[in-house]
Amino acid sequence: MTISREALDMAAKVEAFVRETVVPYEQDxxxxxxxxxxxxxxxxxxEKARAAGVLTPHIRPDGSHFNQRETAVIxxxxxxxxxxxxxxxxxxxxxxxxxxxxxxxxxxLKARFLAPLVEGRVRSAFFMTEPSDEGGAGSDPSxxxxxxxxxxxxxxxxxxxxxxxxxxxxxxxxxxxxxxDPDSQGGACMFLVDLPDPAIRIDHVPNTIDSSMPGGHxxxxxxxxxxxxxxxxxxxxxxFKYAQVRLSPARLSHCMRWLGGCIRANEIAVDYANRRMxxxxxxxxxxxxxxxxxxxxxxxxQAELMIDWxxxxxxxxxxxxxxxxxxxxxxxxxxxxxxxxxxxxxxGTGVTDKTIVEQVFxxxxxxxxxxxxxxxxxxxxxxKVKRDWRHGHGG
Length: 395
Ligand SMILES: Cc1cc2nc3c(=O)[nH]c(=O)nc-3n(C[C@H](O)[C@H](O)[C@H](O)COP(=O)(O)OP(=O)(O)OC[C@H]3O[C@@H](n4cnc5c(N)ncnc54)[C@H](O)[C@@H]3O)c2cc1C
Fold this sequence. Notes:
By secondary structure, this protein is of the alpha+beta class. Helices cover about 50% and strands about 15% of the residues.
């Protein structure tokens, strides 16, 4: 699929909005205890995005999504500031949750849970991971310990979850649990829930390396949560399949947004290297610095091409599991190298909060873990290499 003029125009509008309106807010002190922008700050920026016609820019007014290649140019533009994705409502986990609801939700569920998300009025959370010290689901979702059982017209969910981004303050939750019901035993189910709910208790929000996602990443206890049966997303037992529907585009959209962040960090580092003098010449004229910026140039282009290639595969209707694993590894590792070089080029200034460079560095570090750590993707790719070899040798 091609990238339409409509999408390119939207990306240009988003970029202008982020650079001219959002960037001046980067030093705004309104932050929550996790260090992320407060909801008040986000809502103020959203009003400006709404007025500029760039709110939820990857979804058209009729509810249809731009294709993945088009989404890429728009989300990269929104990521030029860590605040840009929040202002434009393209941030995680809402963007992935909107995608999932748009693809799997019934008309009723969409009207009730998706519409307020697309309007940018509420936040959502995706409850899958569980505490590692209790042996719950992490890299391996099949280890899920949270259970659901049918009780008349309701399902009852019990368990513990960890790293649930935005759970504190979210209004919409997508909860995953393993069924102990005879009809769908062992399969996973996904439920939509109104938040807050007294049966979902926030136990703790740990301090983490990143600070772009409002509400932080909570550890929660789910204690006899009763959910009406018609709030199940799709069919009982199919939850892991739906998680796959969400995971490939969601991990690719992280690549898009943080590529935007690294493009901007690199601009800041290039500017520094051209203005700053050392040993009688501009930093950029020292080969050690110039080479770092040259390597950034190469890594940025490789990341962009990898995203575009994977997006094109998803646009054919493929789940793109293999391709999105390859893109996630290649892009997150390239972005880590880029962000690290930007910090280094800027010397002491690089580790201060005078610019977004240090934040981008911290965010990209976390990105190498969420939506599948690098090693897990490589491990699953290695299994494919082995399968293909066997296939080629009559196995
Ligand atoms: C900032 C952030 C936000 C998050 N937001 C959410 C959210 O909103 N909702 C949600 O449900 N989850 C969320 N997560 C959780 C995230 O998806 C998990 O952290 C991730 O899946 C890894 O699980 P784990 O932390 O339990 O690591 P573990 O499963 O304990 O793995 C630890 C390490 O072991 C290695 N490893 C594991 N398996 C293999 C393998 N097969 N081969 C080689 N090495 C391996 C990897 O290096 C991995 O990093 C978030 C995490 C972070 C850091």
